[in-house]
Structure formats: C-alpha cells, structure tokens
Amino acid sequence: HEGLDPDRTLMMEIDSVSPNMLPAEIRNYLAKFLFTGDDVFRKVGTLSGGERGRLALAKLSLSDANLLLLDEPTNHLDLPTQEVLESVLSNFPGTILLVSHDRYLIDSLASQIWEVEPQGRSLQVFRGSYTQFKAHQLKMAGMSDQNVPVGADVIHDRSSSTQQKSSEKTLSKYELRKAANRLEEIEKQIQGLETKQKIISDELANPPADSHQVLQLGEDYVSLQVQIESLMEEWSELHEKLAE
C-alpha cells in the first residue's frame, strides 16, 4: 500500500496511473474492485486495510508490469479482497513469482511449483498444480493412488475438468479453502503415524523377551495402519474435490 496517497480520493488514485480514462470509466473500473457509489470519492486515508489492498490491486492492474514478485499477498486481506486478488492475478498477462501459504490461491494460479530443498542446495521444478505436486510427493512415498500424473510430464486437462465442473455442483470459496486446509492436516497426520510405525518396526526388529510386549507392539502397528488407511481414503476424496 506504499504507493497510495492518503490525501487523494479513489478517483484521483486511478487517474494518476491512467489519465486517459474518463470519470465514468474510472467509476465502472473501481466497481470491479467492490468500490461503488460515493465510495469512489472517499480519501485513501479513510480506507480500511482490506479496502486499501483492493485499491492497490486496482492500480497494479493498470500498470505496465510484466513480472510480479508476491510474498504472502493474501496476508491481512479480508475474504472479498482475497477473491478480487485471485481474479486480478488470474487475468495478469505476465509472469508471477508467488510465495504463499495460501494453498487455495497457489492451486488456482500456479502452473509450476518450485521446491527448494531444506538445505537450500537444489531447486526442483514441478510442472502442474499444487494439488498435483502434493499427490506426486505422496506417490513417491508409496501412498498415492495410481491415477495421479507424475512429475514433469503433468499436463492439466482443463477441457475435461471444465466439462466435469458443468455437470457437478461447484464448491464455494470457503469450502475449497476448508478442503485444502484439511488436506494439509491429513498429510501431516499420516507422516506422524508413519513415524510411529517406523519406531514400532525398529522395536520389532529386536523384539523384547516379553511376548505380551511383542503382541502389544503388533496390535499398535495394526491400529496405526488402520488409521493411515482411513486418512488416505479421506485424502483421496478431498483430492478429487480439489482437482475438479
């Protein structure tokens, strides 16, 4: 929001970056960013954080930039502003380099995922959506189903997904974000359960002398496996929803 002048009105801010627009055109343009009626005559200094974010996006859309570097762009934005941001970025004709924890935003925009190794020694480039990237990771770990495209050969079939969307109920923004967050929780839970299984496997490799302890370890291992399978079933259902 640093480029906004608190003493200017919204109309003046847009006019400063696009002086050839007529007043009526500016009003119609601002309406796309949820500023209607007398809102266009408000001064920037009276706007809330979310409103300033929308105004900044409106100005950004009129710039000649062909490369955007965005670091957590949805932080501190209200839901309407997040949806406007997604719409603006979806129509941006240039290149976007995005760093974000907003899984839904990444999934709706990204055509490539760049994974930096924990030690920062290498960069892996995956062609596909974030959902496909996570599915690929799970598949490489031996947990994913066989229908998910793998690695650099991933090509998102927009035509088939569009046909499927037209015949099925479209999830709301809230439902999609909720599903994406749950998907991430499941992946963490599965990793935790597998870690526990590994510990039990190590113990069974050198079993204790007490047969009751061995039996208990076996039962614990089976219980963990049941939990993993249940979570994987839920993961598959959520993955299908997000992939639609």
From TrEMBL:
Coiled-coil residues: 176-203
ATP-binding recorded as keyword: yes
GO MF, any single term: ATP hydrolysis activity
Residues in ABC transporter domain copies: 35-75
Keywords: ATP-binding, Coiled coil, Nucleotide-binding
Pfam families: ABC_tran, ABC_tran_CTD
Matches recorded under PANTHER family: ABC TRANSPORTER ATP-BINDING SUBUNIT (PTHR42855), DRUG RESISTANCE ABC TRANSPORTER,ATP-BINDING PROTEIN (PTHR42855:SF2)
Protein name: Putative ABC transporter ATP-binding protein
Protein source organism: Anaerolinea thermophila
